Amino acid sequence: MVVLHKKVLRDIKENKGVYIACMVVIAIGLMVFTSMSIILDNLQRAQQNFYQNTHFADGFIQLTGYPENKVKTLGNSPGIADIEGRIVKDVKLLAEKGSDENSSNHTLRLVSLNPPNASTLDQLQVASGRLPNDKASEILVDPKYFAANHLSLGDSLTLILDGKRAVFTIVGTAQSPEFIYAMRTAQDLYPDPQTFGIAYAPLSTVKGLVKEANQVNDIVFTLKPGADFDTVKEMLQTELKPYGVQSIIPRKDQTSHAILTNELKSLQGTTRTLPVVFLGVATIILYTMLIRLIEQQRGIIGTLKAFGFTNREIVFHYLSYPLFIGSLGGLLGGLSGIALSYPLTSLYEEYFALPGLRGTFSFKYLFLGIVLSLSFSLLSGIKGSLNILHLQPAEAMRPAAPASARKTWLEKMTRLWSMISSQAQMGLRNIFRAPARSLITVLGMAVIYSLMSVSWSMQSMTDKLTTFQYDNVQKYDVKLSLTRPLPAQATVYTLAREPGVSKIEPVLEIPATLKNQWLKKEIVIMGLTPNSTLYNILDKNGQKIPVPDSGILLSDRLATLLQVKAGDSITVESSLQKERVGAKEQTMVVKGIIPQYVGLNAFMDINTLQAFLQQGQISTSMLISMNPQEVSAFKNKYRDASEVGSIEAIQESKDKILQMMKSYAFTTYFLSILAGIAGFALIYNSSIISLSERQRELASLRVLGLTPKEVLLVITSEQWTLTLCGVLLGIPLSFGLIAGMAQALSTDLYSIPAELPPLALLSAVAGTAFSVWIAQTRTYHKIKTLPFVEILATKE
User: Fold this and answer.
1) Ramachandran bin of 162, using left for φ above 0, alpha for ψ from -120 to 50, beta for the remaining angles
2) Which candidate, 345, 447, 312, places its Cα nearest to that of 29?
3) DSSP E strands: which ranges in 595-663?
4) Residue 14 contacts by C-beta under 8 Å, 6 or more apart in sequence?
5) 464 or 92, greater pLDDT
6) In which region does residue 599 sit, left (phi positive, over 0), alpha (psi from -120 to 50) or beta (all else)?
7) Cut 0.85: pTM above it
8) Helices 435-465 & 255-296 angle (0-180, nearest 10)
9) Residue 153: which residues within 8 A CB-CB, separation 6 or more?
10) Beta partners for residue 649, in sequence order
11) What's the Cα-to-Cα distance from 262 to each of 47, 248, 292, 294, 552, rounded to whole Å?
12) Is 182 helix (H, G, I), strand (E, B) or coil?
């Protein structure tokens, strides 16, 4: 057996290029598996511990105002275990003199703190400092905002709350389970801790600053074991309707939790699919190499059998080839995956504020990765070495009988066949000589091409979610959000007199529940002015769609969730709708289905929406087109206004998004690089097999005077044909893959466009062709060094 072990090492050394390429493909697959699995475990463990330690709530209620002294009474309702009321307000931060212009756009979400002995839900985890004293002007901020703005304990912050200025002293940093992924609005997509953060102050202090004394506008609760959330929600909606209830959502729909949950699902999908793709490619390479090796060593196998080696010993010998490569590739991939998990975990820490999220060394996934690699390697080995069992010693020591040959269907097309060079004809014939191997190569190239095309399309996806939104949809310069609905015309008249303002469009955004039979969804309806130019609704071709004067437009994802189409009727309810005695549920006709990549909204004519609410001509925000040079002065003037909730300068938001996308642009090309490596390994393996099978033919061509480049054409014609077939098969596969990704990754916050731009398809063609070309350069080097005299002198 020692002799056979030496033979394994000698054979691998002779074809080390192919085996190393295969090992690298295995290592890539297991690097992805190990790193993503460790990150997934780290995130899940940190999330579970944080939720348990802080008693994360099951339900969240937003309303205009509810008496503080009635909150505990509300907790006696059936199904509710614990309940707490709070005051939650978005407050502006007064910029210090000499600070940069962006500091005037800082916003803090101020959350009131109940006394420590009275708080049981959504408790804070203090990271540094201490809790603020009751009735003191002391405040906690979240660690990311604290670090991004280079704050220190003892620093003072001046907050503008309901038109009042209040100075608070930072006494510590703390994190809440509600704001693991902290965004000002769902349209932000990414956290921006430099301009938005979470702050916590004692309830007694906050009550002295707000207009609604002794009232809370935010309630959290937990459910009793076995309680149904929908039943509890219906009861609460009836009870809280007089108090302007805006939304009642379960934990699964809470923004921060939903984003984290979707990220965990995405990681799970990655760990289950991408490694299998690369291990599948490696299996193909090992299988084809082992089949060819056994064919080449028929005489050796016959000799071994003649000398008394059993079938089991010989099979185990040939199984050792894939197992050796699989074990080395598994170990390399597992260790590199563990190493990669540390910086990737740090990257997730930048987005998700999860205490206890740390990189870990996992023997578990190192072991599982090696087992997974050996399983795929063993599969290829068993499939490839079973033919040994059927060989008799005398038969094996004779060359295999040549396969029967006949004209291919291409050769029957005589005019086309005569136009092809003789070298290319030899390559094309070889495709039909080994149809199974050719089919496997085509399938492998199709998978590689689809991975490349999807990778290149990620840039288009990002543009749809970011720059497309700012350049084509949101055409305004400034969005001024109001703290409460105000008369639209009076607000427009006031703002129109400001310097630099050229156009203003009022917008009415209201919380609403859309129902279609048993299906329902809580969303925000946007009421836009007829023929709006500052907010465009576009179809899939980028053409503008006018807002209908009656009925409602739904985003395509919302229509899918409600299972409706254009022309159907849906029920619409809103807490802001004026209650009418004896009125029945109001229905609206769906006038159209539109694509929407950011958010989950319905759209109506503002006049129709105002008539639906029967609250007069009100608006909740203003879209303003103005001279960019006047934006800073405009923001400074209205930042203290009690009726102004926030002022968003669209150019600032766009610049932040673009800067963030530049920082992580490498992710767009990462998958393409990995797919290119797999493509190189697959084609290089095919080249080496073809070269080893046809050494005598190629050596004869060299003796006849053909140059190495002319001989190379025999192999490249075969490879380019298989690659072309792989690309053609990969195009529909790419569309299927992108559609599956869009369905799996789309959420209520954003919808992944299921589009493959022509540039992505062409870039994938170029990437696939480049990997093939690299493999062929290595093959060309082998042809140049081919000892054709020795080959022709060797008897078959």
Assistant:
1) left
2) 447
3) 601-605, 618-626, 644-649
4) none
5) 92
6) left
7) no
8) 160
9) 128, 129, 170, 171, 172
10) 478
11) 13, 21, 45, 48, 29
12) coil
Take residue 391 and report the two structure tokens written for it: 């060989």
What token pair was written down for 526? 């946007």
For residue 91, the tally of other CB atoms under 10 A from its CB is: 23
- Any idea which residue has 């910086």 for tokens? 343
* DSSP secondary structure letters along 10-34: HHHHHTHHHHHHHHHHHHHHHHHHH
Q: What is the pLDDT of residue 581?
A: 46
Return the structure tokens found at 227. 């309680």
Residue 479 and residue 622 in contact, taking contact as beta carbons nearer than 8 Å: yes
758, pLDDT greater than 80: yes
515 DSSP β-pair partners = 520, 571
On whether the CB atoms of residues 369 and 362 are closer than 8 A, the answer is no
Number of Cβ within 10 Å of residue 48's Cβ equals 11
Residue 502's pLDDT is what?
92
Nearest to 354 by CA among 56, 765, 796, 106: 56
pLDDT-derived band at 61 (thresholds 50, 70, 90) equals very high
Contact between 531 and 505 (Cβ < 8 Å): no
14 φ, ψ (degrees, to nearest 5): -65, -35
Instruction: Enumerate the β-bridge partners of residue 572.
Output: 514, 586
Tokens of 786: 């081919």
Three-state DSSP class for 408?
Answer: coil
Q: Among 145-154, 176-185, 458-467, which stretch is predicted with the lowest mean pLDDT?
A: 458-467
- Residue 202 bridge partners (DSSP): 113
Least confident of 36-50, 556-570, 704-718: 704-718
DSSP calls for 20-82: HHHHHHHHHHHHHHHHHHHHHHHHHHHHHHHHHHHT--SEEEEEEEEEGGGHHHHTTSTTEEE
- Res. 416: pLDDT tops 70: yes
Which residues, 6+ apart, have CB-to-CB distance to 616 below 8 Å? 487, 610
Backbone φ, ψ for residue 545 (5° rounding): -110, 125
User: How many separate helices (H) and strands (E) can be counted in the chain?
Assistant: 25, 20
